[in-house]
Amino acid sequence: MSKRVAIIGTRGYPSYYGGFETAVRHIAPHLADAGWDVTVYGRPGQERVDDPSLDHRVTRRTTRGLESRSLSTLTYGLTAVLDTIRRRPDVALVMNCANGYWLPLLRLAGIPTVVNVDGIEWERAKWGRLAKAVFKTGARATARFADRLVFDADAIGDYWRREFGRSGVMIPYGGTESDVLPLHPDDAHLAGRPFALVVARFVPENTVAEFLVAAERIAERHPVVIVGSTGYGGELDTAAQDLADRTPSVTWLGHVSDDDRLFALWQHAGAYFHGHSVGGTNPALVQAMHCGAPTVARDTVYNREVLAGTGVRFVQPDPGAIADAVLDLLADPVEQELLRGCVRDRARSAYTWSGVCGAYEHALEQQTRGVTVRKAAAAVS
């Protein structure tokens, strides 16, 4: 009899919204290959049902919730947990410690949990005081009620041991290796030209505002490509559009969901700026490394952990420092090629989807052992 797992806390399968969704696109089929009965919970309209990579062995269930920036995670998490309790899987993989509020319900139902805690949401500038308090209280509940914790970086694990007294297993994000792809037709004008690239959701902690200022200076010598948006409009979107409108060598693409187009941009870029500052292993950085993107990164403990030993330049979140580092790299094709090899080697050794998926399967397997024993005892009696 196959083991059954419910995956809770993402926008669905397959979805391309963020890191959790990217992980589930790999984890769910891997578990199905290993004989698991997999159910992924999602939100209406967030799944790409015509995706050719969709694995029909994975059961997709959508539940209701409030479409609110601050309440969507909690409400969709609750309805998914209630449905999970009715279906009684052997284990639940829960993404995001904000869902810690609902872990006592799963425990009362006898469903063990493996929880990916995500980053340190209560330190993100995009959240107000109430939202930060909600996230931290959810983290405390996760520390108390989760059966197994997953951290996506050693630095996140260190934080949880200090702050909440809980340890767990470190499972990072992976990336996809790809042959060198041609640039998308809309990006063909960049071929053969060293260009600067940034890929980020438009939130303050991703150093987007500072890069937009730096981009004005970079664009005096080289093309600049900006990928990302807030998703709902705002000052950063307006600033990016204004910069692109008045600067011919700046292109703002907004959100890019075409993996091949994004991979090609990373592969052909002369300098990729990674400004993420809060969180652990960032999925975009890992994928950029697999694509061999010559990188300039904001100096954080998380970026240093992921990029260890690659020789990448780390900078402070200052427009002048960012512009200096990016321009220096764009002017040095030898260093670009050196960095391409170093980041690619680091990604292949430490951040592969096969290793990530295997680690998740092992963590889930460990939590099902008690359930299997109880089921066997019940069958005998």
Describe the protein's topology.
Elements: E1 4-8, H1 19-33, E2 37-42, E3 59-62, H2 72-87, E4 91-95, H3 103-108, E5 113-116, H4 129-145, E6 148-151, H5 154-164, E7 169-170, E8 196-199, H6 208-218, E9 224-227, H7 235-246, E10 250-254, H8 259-268, E11 271-274, H9 283-290, E12 295-298, H10 301-306, E13 313-315, H11 319-330, H12 333-350, H13 353-380
Q: Main β-sheet: number of strands, strand sense, barrel status?
A: 7 strands, parallel
Shape descriptor: globular
Spatial order of the strands forming the largest sheet: 3-2-1-4-5-6-7
Strand content: 5-15%
State the separation between the terminal residues, measured CA to CA. 18 Å
Give, in order, the helices and strands. Answer: EHEEHEHEHEHEEHEHEHEHEHEHHH
State the secondary-structure class: alpha/beta
Radius of gyration from the alpha-carbon trace, in angstroms: 21 Å
- In DSSP terms (H or I, runs of 4 or more residues), the helix count works out at 13
Tell me, rounded to a whole number, the average pLDDT: 93
Helix content: 40-55%
Question: Can you summarize this structure?
Answer:
The chain has helices at residues 19-33, 72-87, 103-108, 129-145, 154-164, 208-218, 235-246, 259-268, 283-290, 301-306, 319-330, 333-350, 353-380, and strands spanning 4-8, 37-42, 59-62, 91-95, 113-116, 148-151, 169-170, 196-199, 224-227, 250-254, 271-274, 295-298, 313-315.
Summarize this structure as a short list of keywords or feature phrases:
381 residues; alpha/beta; seven-stranded parallel beta sheet; 13 strands; globular; disordered C terminus
